Structures are given as structure tokens and as C-alpha cells.
Amino acid sequence: MKRLLLPLILLLIPYLVLASVISLTTTISTDLMAENTTKVQVKLLNSGDEPANNVQISLISDFQSNPVFVGTLTPNIPFEQEFNISLKEYILPGNYPLVVLVDYSDANAYPFSSVSPSSIVYKTPTVSKLSSMLSELSLTDKETKKLTLTVRNLDDISHELDVKLILPRELKVANGERTISIQSKQEKELSFDVSSFSALPGSSYVILASIEYEHEGLHYSSIGRGMIRITEKPDLIELPSWLPILVIIFLVLIFIYYQFRGKKK
Amino acid sequence: MKIKKIPKALMIERSTNFIILLSIFLFLLNYFKPEVMLSKTITTGGDMASDYYPAKYMRDYLLPNLKIIGWCPGWYAGFPIFQFYFPLTFLLMVLMSYIIPLQIAFKLVTILGIFSLPLTTFFSMKLMKFKFPTPIITAILTLPFLFIEANSMWGGNIPSTLAGEFSYSISLSLTVLFFGLLYRGLEENKFLISNSILFALVSLTHIYTMMFAGLTSAFLLLERKRKKVVNNFMYLFKTYFLTFLLIAFWFLPLMFYINYTTSYADTWRVGLEKMFPKIIAVFSPLCLITLYDYIKKGDKRLGFLLFSLVVSTILYFFAETIGLVNIRYVPFMELFLMIIAGYGLSRLVEKLEAKWLFAFIVLFVVSYFVKESTTYIPTWINWNYEGFEAKTLWDSYRSVNELVSGTQNDPRVVYEHSPDHNAAGTTRAFESLPLFSGRPTLEGLYMQSTISSPFIFYIQSEISKVNSCPFWNIWPCTNFNIEDGTKHLKMFNIQYFIARSEQVKTAVRNHPDYRRVEIIEPYEVYELMTNKNKYVIVPDYEPVLFETTNWKNISYEWFKDVDKIDVPLVFVKYISDEDIGRFKSIITNERLDDLTGIPTNQDCNIQEYVSNEEVTFTTTCLEKPHIIRISYHPNWQVDGADKIYLVSPSFMLVFPKEQEVRLWYGYSWIDILSYAATFIVIVFLIFYTFLNNHKVIKFLKR
Hints:
The structure holds 2 protein chains of 2 kinds. Chain A is mostly beta strands.
């Protein structure tokens, strides 16, 4: 019986496999832009267990900046980069959205990207009176679904809003930029047709929506966050998960029986 | 007639082996769905998409011209295709394509290593005479190795194979079989030719496996009796000598011309949990049983298997020293860990009844465990093998290719590198421009196979919003700069530019040198109007003769400084009297600061024709420097001029002595010697095999 025990125990150890991952955390710090230029500090940390390759950081904003090639981002070794940004053209003082887009690839050269929000204050700080919320969404890799953005105006006056949906490269949206009017204290729902472009099933992607308006010579902005999950298309026929376990237990029992049958002989 | 009755136990063993091997095959088939694998589409995904073009080039051009190795103009301003990569898998695809479509042959060969590994492992263990159920259990335990998801470019497992490492997978599978046949051959003093041929197949499919197998076999010299050591040494010497001659046609020129490649030695720092992920680590304690058995019994077979772990570990730590990538040796450790564990597991039931049932339990447990552990592999398989044609951007991608279509005689087409190309099948989708449009481009696969790749990836960084810069630690790149990029594009004879990102589209649109040809969403195609659209030119300034043994670094520094690139540098190790008469400026101190331009002031009429391995041109400017904007390689030969010089960045330069000049990619003395060696040994092996009883053979055997 002792002889029988060890192989069976070894075979029936239950465990799970952890696949290697790249998990990027982006930290952004900005200074007030008093003149025509300022600096943006971006810190990247890969807290996964797989190096991120071909990492490149770009800033999406109303300002001028150059992307920076990082190369390979080794797990748990932070990377910091200072960006010099400057005005492209005349703009009103106020608060502007800043999105950091990080492109990278995994060991298989499959490309990924992520977006992270921040903001830049140009000359005068402002606080937006608009709040927003993005619905959560699950997509399979070949379907298009409606994503809802709820915008609420907390201000006492109406505003003309520029709304922009900002997605990682793996997702696409039709008509992602809108201009809408919103009355005081009004809540509006905007829907966007979102689909996967080259997103990987099983992955989740952070998405952003920027909402901007101008009032009395000042610029206001806020950014809403949401999440899109890419799921596998389910198989038509799926066997119950307990069936293989049952078969294994059955085979083990027969195997044990054989050992004793042998001894009887 | 007396029929020999097979014992019942043997019948059960054979049936068990057959049913389990069939089950493993069906298990794999469940992932590689026949309806996808047998569809006539061009495989895409990762690097694998770009492997199709070399296969097609071999079928359409090389083989009809009785070549396996040759010159390919499609990538990197031309490169010696299959000289620095492994030709055997492609040859197999091409041979199969005479029976089935190349698209399907390509798919089937790419998964050959995966499907054959359980089989070769089984037969290797049988050849080493391991008792039932060891061979079948080790075959089952190859499944966790194949389904490792922790890495996708080290080789051997399914994700690496899908990333384009299919040659490695096939080679690894053959290596396992070679170990079994070599062991048996040495024990029985048989299979010398079979082992030589098998090791030649291993070597022609991957060099990492060749090194690993060759070094591991040294264990077989560790014998107590001196006579046995001598016998084994002679056997191994004969085997490897025959192999060397069999692969000489490829291997000798590879070693001879290794300086005409771009080295990519890199050391990856990876943790143990990555090297031995849980899908295989959980089986590793079983290796202790094998180790215990080896120490206790001194079973040489177990020592041989355990020694493979020692060799792969040593190679892992010394890879960078020998100019190779360390992580490529990890799959050997992973696979042989599973094979050794397989022995340990079967050893546990050695004295139990119904071992056949135990083998089935192992099959069920392992396959269930593997299935539950697998996450992204099915999606990747489908993504790759449904092909370019199934991708959302296929129509646009095809239209762009049709728009720029032409031949290798036309100027090159360049594209912005962008992760967004993945929607067309892979980020590297436009590397297949030569396949779909017939036109050469700059980037391609096998980036180590040419001296031009550092320059080409530098250009990529100048003209793309996002760059890949694969040689970033040796040959650093730059950021988007359309001004400098345009100068470099003209140097590489680029006519069309495919832009993808808004930033690049805007920059090119606003640049006076370009005109927009067409918008094919999401791409825009521009023509570089100021390019001369010629492969052969007389430079604006006299080339400077540059004496150096460090030409790659000098050329790269020269290339990055756009103020200098109008004055070409001709690199020589030693300056001859003949050279002094030809060049107006000479630099011997390796300093680029002294570079001054002397205008050539030539108005030359040059007519050219470029085909795959030949450039012919007529010129009115005799004895004047003519740059041929094709990568330099010593195999290029010339009629109508004395010699071919290496000119910056990595092109060819001649001084025509006649009005008509012809350059062609030919054979050097090392090629002829290598082909002769392989030819002679093949003829010898045929005679040896078919005229085994001939008196000459008998004499040789003595």
C-alpha cells in the first residue's frame, strides 16, 4: 500500500499555474505651467514578472512634446523620465487633460498599450464642475458594443462641452469626439460604439473620457475612467468541469483494486 | 506456417502505448483545429508571418535555380538568405508544397516540432531500452513543457513556436531522438550513419540544439574501461565528422562569413519561477528519484539524461561569452527536467500491478492539469493560423500592397513601424511587402543575417512615432525626425512611404519632398519625389578611403550625422597602391572630423537593371565611383570593374572600367569547397548504404 500511496499523492496534488504578466503602473507629476513651457515627470514601474519590451512613452495633450523610447522595462525596476512640454498655440489659462500613452510589447513581440490620466494647469488652476462616469463593458474580440458615458453638470449654468473618448490602441471607437450642450444640474448619457481592434482576450483595458469646457476666459477639464474587458467567445459545447476529475477518481479506484486483486492471487 | 504468439502483457503494453500516443495527438489537435490548420490562408502573428516570404522565395526562386542559399533583395537592402538561418524547415515546406498548397505546408511544418516531441521522446526512451511505462510516461510529460506560458520566445514550447521559433521546436524534438539513437548506437556499435544524418538534421534546424547535443554527448566518454573510452570516442568522432561534412555546404560559409552579420548577444536576467513555472516545477521533485537511482545503481542512461541538465546550465551561464543569448538554453533544462521526472514517476510503480492503468491515470491527470493551466494559447493559435486574410484590416492592407506593387527592379517601399499594424495580423505585417507587392522594403526577419540592419532600424526610429530598436544596447536609435529620416530614405532608394500614425501622416504631408499618392484608411501612402529612384548612382562627393578594422562603428557614427552622409566612406583594412590612385582623400586615423567633401561634378547617364541576384548597368562615367545601394557581401562579384569596395553605410562601390558593368551574387572558394565536401560525403553514404558488401566498402570497414 505504501508503494501505491506516493505516486497517487504526487499525481493528485491540486495546484494552479500562474502565467507570467507585465503589469505597468504609471505615476505622473506635473508642475504649474506659468510660462510657455513646463516639465512633466513620468514614472513607470513594471510590477509583473515579465520584462516589457520596446517601451515607449508618449503624451496626449494640447501641448507639444516628443515621445521617449525606454527600451526594456525590467520587473520592479522603476523608470523615470522628464518631458519638456510647450505650447503649440495660444490657449486660455486653466486646467487641461494630459494622458500618458505607454506602448510596449511582450516577449512574443505582441504589442500592448495603456493610457493613464493626469492634468496640466496652465497659469490659473480651475476646478471642473462636471463629473462623469463610464460604464463597464465586456467585449468579445469580434463584436461592437455600446459604451455609455454619463455626464452630470453640477454647475449653476449651462456649458458647451468637448467630450473625447481616449482608448488604448487595441480598442477602437466610431465618432469618439463630440461637442454637446448641457444644462445646469442636468445629467446626460452619451453612447459610443466600441470594438476590439487587436485586443487580447482575457485582458482588461483602462479607458478614459476627457470633458472640457471654457467659461469666462478660463479652461476647465475633467477625466473619467472606465474599464473594458475582452472575453473569449464561449464554446458551443462545454463539458462540465467535474467530469475529468470524476474519470480520474474512477481510474484511481480501479488501479487500487488491481493492487489488491494481485495480492489475493 | 507457425505464427508467433505475442504475450498478453506485451500486447497490453503495446496497446497502451498506441492509445496514449494517439490521445496525445488528439489532445494537441484539439488546440490546433484541423479546419484552421488546413485552410489555405497565409499564417500571420508575431514573427511567424514574416517566415512565409522566405519559404515562398525558396520555392519560386532558389530551388528552381538549384539553390538553397542565395541572395534575397526583399529585406535589409538585400541579404544572404538562409546563410545565417536554418534552411531545413523551409526546404521541407517547399518540398511539401509540390503536393499540397504552400500555405498549408507552411502551417503543418510550423507545428511539426510540437506534434513530434511526444513521439520522439517515446522512441528515444525505447531506444535507450527503458522499460514500460517509462517511455510512454515521459511522452505524456512533454505536454506540460509544450504548454508553458511563462515565456514565448525561448524556444520549444507552443507560444515560442507561434512566435516563429518553429525551427527550434523541430530541432529540439530531433535532439531528443538523437540522444536515444546515439546511446543505442554506442552500446551496440551500430547506427553510425543514422546518427550522423540525424545530427545533421538537428544542426540544420538550429545551432543551439547542435551545441547542446554535441556537448551532452561528451558524457558518453565517461567510461571506466580505457578501451570503451577509445571506442566511444572513435564512434563520436566518426559521427560528428560525417555530420560536419553533411552540413559543410551551409556551416562552413556561415562560420567563414560570420563578420558579415550583426551580433545579438544578450543576457536575460530571469527568476527561477520564470525558468521553472509551476506547470513543470510541480513535477520536479520526481527528478530526485531519478538522481537517487543513478547514485544507487549507476545507470548510465540516467547519468546521460542528468548530464543534459548540467550542460544546459553551463551553456546558460556562458552564453554571452560565446556571443549567444542565454535564455535559449533554458528550454533544454525544462524539457529534460520533465523527461527525468517521467522516469522518476514510472519508477514509483515499478513493482505495482496494472502499470498500464497508471499510464492512463498519468495521461488524464496531466492533460486535465495542462488544459486547466492554459490561458492564452488557444487564442494565439487561432490568431496565427486563421491568417492575414481573416484580419479586420485585410482589405486595406491588400489595397496598399496593390498600390505599391512592382518588382525588385523598382525602388524600395518603406513603412512606419507601428503597433497598430497588429490589426493586420502582426506588428510586422509590412515586412511581407515583398510577398504581397513584389517590392523590396527595408525591415525584415533574420535581422542578424546582414550588416545593414543597424542602419535600417535607425531609419525606422526616425520615421516612426513608435520604434522597435532591437539592437538598442549596441546600436542605439533615435526619435522621430522626418528631416533626417528623409535624407536616409533617399540613401536607401525609397520611393514610397506608408504612414500609419496621425503624427507621422501630418509630418510627411507637410514636408515638401513628399506627395500623397492615396489614402487607404487607416494608411496613407506618400511618394518621396526627390529620390533618384536608382540603385546605382555616382555620389555628389568623392568617396573617402578609410583605413579601419572597426568599420561598423565608424559607419554607424557617420550615418547618424546627416551633415556627413553626403561624403561616402570606403572601408579597407589596409590601403594598397592601387587604392591610393583611385581615391582623392584618405583617412588613416579613424577620425570623422577630418571629413571634407570634394564634389564629383559628374553628369552621368546610368541605365540599370536589378534582379534577385544580379545588377547590370551601363554608364558614361568610366573610372568614376559608382555606389550600388545594395548590402555588401564578399560573394558579390563584378565584371567591368576591378573589385567591389565596401562603402558606407553598408553598400557596394565600383569604379567601372567598361561601359557595361555586371555584378552578381556568386560562389566564393569557401562555398565551392563546402559544397564539394557535402556532395562527396552524400555520394559516399549512398555507396556505403547500397553497396554494403562491395570489396571497397569492406576494406574501408576494416
